UniProtKB/TrEMBL annotation:
It is a multi-pass membrane protein. NCBIfam families: GspF. The keyword Transmembrane applies. Residues 72-194, 274-396 form the Type II secretion system protein GspF domain. It is found in: Cell membrane. This is Type II secretion system inner membrane protein GspF. PANTHER family: GENERAL SECRETION PATHWAY PROTEIN, TYPE II SECRETION SYSTEM PROTEIN F-RELATED. The chain crosses the membrane at residues 167-193, 213-239, 373-398. The lineage of its organism: Bacteria, Pseudomonadati, Pseudomonadota, Betaproteobacteria, Burkholderiales. It comes from Paraburkholderia kururiensis. Belongs to the GSP F family.
């Protein structure tokens, strides 16, 4: 049986929407008529995402981070309670409030009932379930601990969302200050400076260099803004194109790790993702080589990914995990030391969780420090720019006043 999305009208004329299971669209329409409904649309739930007409309906729709965490948590609870996977997916479909989530769960259930693995069913929806999510699910199915893996995956998603929100909120104020400062400077250059310049033009007074330079900049802002905007977009496109190449991207990521302030943030963020994923896979009993490979795929920095691949080679040759990661000289020493302690006590999973939590707190602290440093610097920069503009306007006035006296 497959999952079908339907739209039908009841005897009172009200339009009803939902998902039903049937062998075919014709059988689905028969079910609706048996319930006293007049079917308008009966189609495969998955077709809503692939048909030309339905692609417009699905435009912009996907699972939010919050919905992904909730679905994962609920599914883990149902599986741990002993409910089969297909019935668990059916429960999630029935209790989902949003139509898209309901249809998504029904579509995945239809794939599972049809004989596909859960990870393979999720691969039909890459926008909702990224590669690492599907890799962890596949590992859980392989080891027979899908419920445990999903439970820890839900913890990881929730912690990752919380960390991301804190980082975004921390940088929101500096971003707002920057936008306001840019707007104020643009207004001064495009309106105030030209108005004052007209006064001095009629006097045929020789203007100071600072004023002449400011007038030239004002003219560019008023008449050449389109060129600046086009150049900005072209530069952004060119940079993105260059960074899509393996060589330049690797060189950029290597530089990023050593960049002042930003380097520690990038290293910390990737370390949190790596340690969390490795902890989830370790708890599920996934072999260390496969776990390292999957955890390495979560890294957004290519230079760190190459170091993990080197560590995989060393582990395959018989080296311990702590020694292999320590030789990379990339991950924080605390992570290496905690893994070494876990290897000595036989509890690497707990140590990986502690390393992830500790690095997450450190990343949050560094983010707060950076934003607290940026705020006064932005205010000083804005004040400096406004001071230059004021000086450019006031200097001719002062000279004119001296000439009058």
């Amino acid at each position: 049986m497959s999952a079908f999305r339907y739209e039908a009208i009841n005897p009172t004329g009200k339009t009803l929407r939902g998902v039903l299971e049937a062998d075919s669209a014709k059988a689905g329409r028969s079910q609706l008529r048996a319930q006293g409904l007049t079917p308008l649309v009966v189609e495969l739930a998955a077709s809503r995402l692939h048909g030309e007409r339905n692609r417009r309906l699905a435009l912009g729709k996907k699972l939010s981070q919050r919905e992904q965490a909730i679905v994962t948590r609920q599914l883990a609870s149902l599986l741990i309670a002993g409910l089969p996977l297909d019935e668990s997916l059916s429960v999630l479909s029935d209790q989902s409030e949003r139509d898209y989530v309901r249809e998504l769960m029904a579509s995945i259930r239809a794939e599972v009932v049809g004989g596909h693995s859960f990870a393979n069913a999720l691969s039909q929806h890459p926008r909702d379930f990224p590669d690492i999510y599907r890799a962890l699910v596949a590992a859980g199915e392989h080891t027979g601990k899908l419920g445990v893996v999903l439970s820890r995956l839900a913890d990881y998603i929730e912690q990752s969302n919380a960390l991301r929100q804190k980082i975004v909120l921390a940088f929101t104020y500096p971003a707002v200050v920057t936008v306001i400062a840019f707007g104020i400077v643009t207004f001064l250059l495009s309106y105030v400076v030209p108005q004052v310049a007209n006064v001095f033009t009629s006097t045929k007074q020789q203007l100071p260099f600072l004023t002449v330079a400011m007038l030239a900049l004002s003219g560019f802002v008023r008449h050449g803004w389109w060129a600046a905007l086009g150049g900005l977009f072209a530069t952004g496109w060119l940079v993105r194109k260059v960074l899509s190449l393996p060589g330049p991207r690797l060189a950029f990521d290597q530089w990023l790790l050593t960049a002042p302030l930003a380097g520690r943030l990038v290293r910390g963020y990737n370390t949190v993702r790596f340690a969390s994923t490795l902890g989830i896979l370790s708890a599920a009993g996934v072999p260390i080589l496969r776990a390292l490979q999957a955890a390495g795929e979560t890294l957004s920095n290519r230079a760190m990914l190459n170091k993990v691949e080197d560590a995989i080679v060393r582990v395959r040759e018989g080296s311990s995990l702590s020694r292999a990661l320590g030789n990379t000289k990339t991950f924080p020493p605390v992570l290496v030391h905690l893994i070494r302690s876990g290897e000595a006590t036989g509890d690497v999973t707990t140590m990986l969780d502690r390393a992830s939590e500790g690095e997450s707190r450190e990343l949050e602290r560094r983010t707060m420090f950076l934003t607290s440093l940026l705020e006064p610097l932005l205010i000083l920069a804005m004040g400096g720019v406004v001071l230059v503009i004021v000086l450019a306007v006031m200097m001719p006035i002062i000279e004119l006043n001296n000439m009058v006296q």
